[in-house]
Design a protein that fits this description.
about 110 residues; 4 helices; flat
Length: about 110
């Protein structure tokens, strides 16, 4: 008899995790809806820097929720989590440096130069 788990390099029951209950997915979905409402409300009530600041805090939280539960990163091996987080850290550094550079530009976008 052919064992499909062994043929594909899976260790069998040790690699499997219990299925995520539907209630968990519903709670995560409701949380995403609430956080989306917070972002929209902040952008309407506080346009500009405050609304953008709220969006920059809430958006990574929403992304983490999607990655952890809907994409099952929560149940992956630590090496995959480390690889993903390393890539996200590099991306955050590059984006942060871009925003840092842009923040020194003047109102007209010319950095005070004409």
């Amino acid at each position: 008899m052919h064992d499909s788990h062994a043929a594909h390099g899976h260790g069998g029951a040790h690699d499997a995790h219990a299925p995520v209950p539907n209630g968990t997915f519903i709670l995560v979905w409701v949380g995403l809806l609430v956080l989306t409402a917070v972002t929209v409300a902040a952008s309407v009530m506080f346009p500009g820097k405050v609304g953008i600041g709220v969006a920059m805090v809430v958006t990574p939280i929403k992304a983490a929720m999607i990655l952890l539960w809907f994409m099952h990163l929560k149940y992956e091996k630590p090496v995959f989590k480390f690889m993903f987080l390393s890539a996200m850290l590099i991306l955050a550094i590059v984006m942060g440096l871009t925003f840092f550079d842009y923040s020194f530009l003047g109102e007209g976008g010319h950095g005070g130069r004409i």
